[in-house]
Specification:
The protein is of the alpha+beta class and 407 residues long. It has helices spanning 14-17, 21-41, 60-66, 70-73, 78-81, 97-104, 152-187, 196-226, 239-249, 251-256, 276-292, 338-341, 351-362, 401-404; strands at residues 45-50, 55-58, 83-86, 89-90, 108-110, 116-119, 125-137, 140-150, 235-237, 260-265, 272-274, 299-306, 310-317, 365-371, 375-383. Strands 1, 2, 3, 4, 5, 6, 7 and 8 form an eight-stranded antiparallel β-sheet that branches. Strands 10-12-13-15-14 form a five-stranded mixed β-sheet, covered by helices on one side. It has a two-stranded antiparallel ribbon with strand order 9-11. α8 (196-226) packs parallel to α13 and α9 packs across α11. The longest helix has 36 residues, at 152-187. It is elongated, with a radius of gyration of 29 Å. The termini are far apart. It binds adenosine-5'-diphosphate (ADP). Adenosine-5'-diphosphate (ADP) binds next to α11 and α13. Adenosine-5'-diphosphate (ADP) is lined by residues 285, 289-290, 293, 317, 319-322, 330, 335-337, 340, 347-353, 376.
Length: 407
């Protein structure tokens, strides 16, 4: 009983204890064959490393993705054969999902949304989704397990979907804008007098059409973000001026809800090199959320202050807040918290996703604190050195004065 020498007798099943040495060898051999068959018929790539990040096992599918025969891969350092990129930036070994999984004893999932690419041994890069877990033995981390798959097809479908949304929303903008213009003309009496009842109906039509325009504009922005086609064109800009423009757009909503707005713009605030249009999107979304999600008679505070390295924009409200369980999902596309969905049927759940995506590209940050039924504070930090420029073909933040007119 060779195996028993190192193991607790009680841990071995009765049939193993009663087996002959030859039987055991045969069974071990059969199990190894079976494991080999399972690994090679898996469609997902599997790589297992030891604690020194050396590859100890790799299946055929992973070998095909890496363009490396499994025999050649075993024994090599994982980072040597597994070059990962996020978009076009090489991920440093210390920041790789394997390191994070091993260091934090955590499972790391990398989806299509994270834009990870694997550069294989032929020098080709392919989009991948991954699940990385620490390999645990008796609670101790002894290595890592990486499951990965090529998501070229999913990426193509995602791209086609974004292109369709972009095209459809672009086409919808023109007729919706003309509807607004014509309603405005009728309301202004350009084609004859309008009685009270007609005015009421036209006002409802106008507001509903404005909501459609906002939705279409948000969808257009999201598709341009997802396709990576949007431009960041930084210019030296006075941030309070942009904040004031965003507040002017909200005048009627602030008045209707009797919201007190307090503003604090630091005197030592320098002009910062930001894209004015994108900065307007940021102010406008944060401030309109604060007004929308604060009950009548509440307060919204806006401050813009420099720190050593950044300019911090803070928007605080005394509103409904965000339930704790919903807080981790708040920057996800189309997400709206339960407490808000009950009260307000009109939002799109796209504004914060747009802000976060802009800042991810521009080099800034956004975060928040929120206490349900007490209020929320959203903060955006933009480097004093300014936003990072980005080439592209399309602009974000589609609103013109007519669309923003508060009737
Ligand atoms: P929308 O406001 O159109 O729903 P956003 O992306 O701007 O979309 O916001 C997503 C969700 O985040 C909101 O639906 C709401 O649940 C929550 N949220 C954002 N800002 C606030 C705020 N100031 N107070 C409470 N909840 C907020």
């Amino acid at each position: 009983m060779v195996l028993m020498a190192e193991n607790d007798n009680n841990n071995l099943s009765t049939d193993i204890r009663d087996s002959s040495y030859e039987d055991l060898i045969l069974r071990i051999h059969q199990e190894k064959e079976q494991l080999g068959a399972i690994l090679s018929s898996m469609s997902e790539g599997l790589v297992v490393t030891d604690i020194n990040r050396r590859i100890i096992l790799i299946n055929q599918a992973a070998g095909i993705l890496l363009r490396l025969a499994p025999d050649e891969a075993v024994g090599r350092n994982f980072g040597e054969v597994f070059q990962l990129y996020r978009k076009d930036q090489l991920i440093k070994r210390e920041d790789s999902p394997l390191e994070r999984a091993i260091e934090n004893k955590n499972i790391i999932s990398i989806s299509l949304l994270e834009h990870f690419y694997l550069k294989n041994q032929n020098g080709r890069t392919l989009p991948v989704a991954m699940q990385v877990a620490p390999l645990l033995l008796n609670g101790e981390v002894t290595g890592g397990i990486i499951l990965l798959r090529d998501i070229t097809r999913e990426q193509e479908v995602d791209q086609a979907k974004s292109e369709f949304v972009s095209l459809a929303s672009h086409q919808l903008r023109t007729p919706l804008s003309s509807i607004s213009w014509f309603i405005e003309m009728i309301l202004d009496g350009d084609v004859g007098p309008v009685n009270k009842r007609q005015q009421e109906y036209l006002d409802v039509l106008y507001q509903s059409n404005q909501r459609l325009i906002e939705l279409v504009n948000d969808l257009l922005d999201v598709s341009r973000i997802d396709l990576g086609t949007f431009i960041i064109d930084p210019k030296l800009t006075d941030l309070p001026t942009i904040a004031e423009e965003a507040l002017v757009d909200l005048t009627s909503k602030i008045k209707i809800k009797n919201i007190t707005v307090n503003k604090k713009y630091s005197e030592s605030l320098p002009k910062v090199s930001v894209d004015p249009r994108l900065t307007h999107v940021i102010f406008s979304n944060l401030l309109s959320n604060a007004v929308k999600y604060t009950p009548e008679g509440g307060t919204v505070n806006l401050s813009i202050e420099p720190t050593d390295q950044e300019v911090v924009i803070t928007v605080t409200d005394t509103g409904y807040g965000i339930p704790l369980a919903d807080q981790p999902k708040i920057f996800t596309k189309l997400f709206r918290a339960d407490n808000i969905k009950e009260r307000d049927l009109e939002g799109t759940g796209l504004g914060l996703y747009i802000i976060k995506s802009i800042l991810n590209h521009a080099g800034g940050r956004v975060w928040f604190d929120s206490l349900p039924d007490h209020g929320s504070t959203f903060r955006v930090a933009i480097p004093l050195a300014g936003m990072t420029q980005k080439e592209g073909t399309k602009i974000l933040g589609f609103t013109n004065n007519s669309e923003r007119k508060n009737r």
